Amino acid sequence: MTPLDTLQAHSSFFVICLGGALALPLLSFLLCFYVSEKYSWATSVLAPFLMMASTVCAAVVLYQAWNHPAFTWQRVWFSIADHTFTAGIHVNNASALMLFVVTGVSFLVHVYSIGYMAGDTALRRYFAMLGFFTFSMLGIVVSDNLLLIFVFWELVGFSSYMLIGHWNESPAAAEASKRAFIINRVGDAGFLIGLMLVWTHGHTFNIEALRALPLDPAWMTAASLCIFCGVVGKSAQFPLFTWLPDAMEGPTPVSALIHAATMVTAGVFLLGRAHFLFTPAALNVVAITGAITALLGAFAALSQHDIKKVLAYSTMSQLGLMVAAMGAGAPEAALLHLFTHAFFKACLFLSAGSIIHALHQAQHQSHVNFDVQDIRLLGGLRKKLPFTFIMFVVSGSALAGLPLFSGFLSKDAILAALVHWSNTGDAWHWVVLLVVALVSFVTVLYTFRLVWTIFNGEEKSTASLVVSEPPVVMRAPMAVLALASVWIWFSWNPFSFSGWIYNHIGAAKDFHGGFVSMASAAWVLLALAVAYASRGRKLDSRLLAQGFYVDLFSRKAIEQPTLQLADLTHRADKKWIDGFLHATAYAQVIVANLTGWFDRAIVDGFVDGAAGLAKSIGSFTRSFQGGKIQLYIFWAAFAIIIFIIWTLL
Amino acid sequence: MNAPLILFYFFEAAAAIAAVALLFARSVFYGALLVIVILLALAGLYVLAFAEFVAVTQILVYAGGILVVIIFGIMLTSRLSGKPLVVEHTLPVSGGLVGLAFFGALVYAIALQTFPTSESVAKTSTTFDATQTVGIALMSDYVLPFETTGILLLMALIGAAVMASDNASKKI
Amino acid sequence: MAPVHHFLYLGAFLFSTGLIVIITKRNTIMVLLGLELMLNASNLNLVAFNSLHPGSLQGQMFALFVIVVAVCEAAVGLAIVLRVYRQYRTSVPDHVNELNQ
């Protein structure tokens, strides 16, 4: 057991920090489980504290690893026959940044959870699983080895199952957690097959070693598509996305964590990590899948009424954008969007959680009951929740991709990459580009629809409630995340995405995005105008005929088709996809009945004969072992006598 | 027919008769007493086979120790049940047949063998002190098995005490 | 000195008797007694064979250790019998068949 590769240019301090960043969430998991029931409040201090330490360590790692040669560390894991399996850590720029983002968001979510989950009966399990969730995700981020990634991948699936079903007394939550788990398994089956293919043709799981190998393109297409299956499941791509909206049954901070840092991003990160495995044919599939998902998600988000579901579908659509960018051969753009998305989506979810929390508290005091997540019942909360309003608008702007916000930069990078891709590739690449442009338009629509419905207009069900802002432990993480949604962290120039991150997370290509960024800024602002014009209109009602040109335009040219498309995609989701699932279920039942009949009539007939024989033999042998010890001894002695006589004669 | 030979056949007859009586004993208590008779007779035979130390151990440990324990056990069980322990028989015919067949096979096997007559060696063996030799051998050549059996005894003692103790639910 | 054969015949007889006792007696203590009988029969053989080799002590030693092990066996066996009796109110071995139900 000797280290196969030593560390170069990395101090032992760096190694300690890296170990700390990885081990502290695990420590938090263990400690939270072992705290006794009586001191379960202690977990809400302990877990965030450990996460903070982990975040600090990750920050040091990021600072030291940035623009240095990748840190690698390997050990022999186990060997079967003469095959040696190694396990190791590989930290390059992208994984160091991801490490920091995951621990940072997780830390903020921990802090937020102190307020949000206060008084929960299963606090220990909650914080323990948060720690474990983070740890599994960090494992994916730093592993240098596809097999190890798969192991952590499954752990992420398991811990998300535990967290989505945290309120396991609610049947919907239990159902949702099962659903998330099983749909993820479907994708993981593909991942596993992909791993086998990779092993058969590369004889190694080490990513860096695979990069150097000449691999058969036909098989690599198959293998990478199988790996992409895992990504489809984990990152909620078409057609395995239905678990993501259902997963909203979990606690809101968990949703924030799943959507921003730990779960769905794992798939995109893996795509970036194993991007070299993907052949052009496989990348085309990836791009198309991403585009379809983005489109479906965006329109489904338009027609939803549940605040968390809107956000969930928006995540889906943003993930679709990232995957499409991966497919277009621009992993840097996808990763940049991944990082920006982590901050603003976490902030959006935490703001939504803050609304839900505040309204729940208010309901509790005045004994009014209505569904606080239904945006049709909300309105005019701007005055009652000014802080949340600002947070929501800032992060929503980032989501919509307004200039000066981080989302603008990353979406720009994706658009620029796609423009470049369309210019160089087949004609149908333009379709993907148009779809992505449409998605970014619709993103603005649904984001600001959400903002206007919840915060502007007249108060509906909440009019009589005394609503107060959530405590500071919940507001502070939101503020930090909202600050991180501003452009300046990602690039000095608000209109150029090629900042310090973009240029260093991979072999960044410059797409000369000046024109694209101007065009997309104009496009987004147009969308904003449309959204403003159609504000307050119920999307499921007919718009009034009167109105200025934009109104008319939006109604005639955009809103109605949009509505129809939204309806269509909603139906596609609910009817076709669910219907397809039902049809397969029915088909399975029919096949099961058929096989059942076959089983009874023919197989059983045969088996009964065999069983009858076995039974008669059994009842004969049974007489030897009726639980009578002395009979056993008798038979034993009998056998010995026969043996003695046999030897003597 | 010298005196040792008479004693030998006397002890053999005593052991055999007691064993037959044991087969037909219907009371556990009498059965235990018959086993004591057998053990004492065997101790006598050991003396005749120049194994005085084993004979003494037989009497001390078996007749004096084990059988007393067994009789205690019998009395305890009959006290618990409140009625005398009467032994039923199961499988008398097949059990007896198996035993007889076994005996027959063993006798046949023994009769086939020829052993050197012990008359020649008997005279030399009377000259040395068996007990002293056994003691020296136990402490030199056989010290490891000796110590091991000591540990085994200790374990059996503790185990038996724990198992037979009354407070069954107490954590051990 | 009696011929070794006669020791062996008695040993075989006691062994067979012990076997019959074990098989036929419907009482756990009697079964234990039968077991002791069988051990003693083998002991008798050991001692008898040892008398053929006056210089060596191996047979006697073996017999001694057999006795010690028999002590352990009797003590533990009796403790088990007592415990079983308290638990199931029976000393008939076949009645303790909970695992068979």
From TrEMBL, chain B:
Coiled coil: none annotated. It is a multi-pass membrane protein. Its EC number is 7.1.1.-. It is an enzyme of class 7 (translocase). Keywords: Cell membrane, Membrane, NAD, Quinone, Transmembrane, Transmembrane helix. The chain crosses the membrane at residues 6-25, 32-53, 59-78, 90-111, 142-164. It catalyses: a quinone + NADH + 5 H(+)(in) = a quinol + NAD(+) + 4 H(+)(out). It is found in: Cell membrane. InterPro entries: NADH_UbQ/plastoQ_OxRdtase_su6, Nuo/plastoQ_OxRdtase_6_NuoJ. Belongs to the complex I subunit 6 family. PANTHER family: NADH-UBIQUINONE OXIDOREDUCTASE CHAIN 6. NDH-1 shuttles electrons from NADH, via FMN and iron-sulfur (Fe-S) centers, to quinones in the respiratory chain. Couples the redox reaction to proton translocation (for every two electrons transferred, four hydrogen ions are translocated across the cytoplasmic membrane), and thus conserves the redox energy in a proton gradient. This is NADH-quinone oxidoreductase subunit J.
Automatic annotation (TrEMBL), chain C:
Its EC number is 7.1.1.-. Signal peptide: none annotated. Its main location: membrane. Belongs to the complex I subunit 4L family. NDH-1 shuttles electrons from NADH, via FMN and iron-sulfur (Fe-S) centers, to quinones in the respiratory chain. The immediate electron acceptor for the enzyme in this species is believed to be a menaquinone. Couples the redox reaction to proton translocation (for every two electrons transferred, four hydrogen ions are translocated across the cytoplasmic membrane), and thus conserves the redox energy in a proton gradient. NCBIfam families: PRK05715.1-2. This is NADH-quinone oxidoreductase subunit K. It comes from Chryseolinea lacunae. The lineage of its organism: Bacteria, Pseudomonadati, Bacteroidota, Cytophagia, Cytophagales.
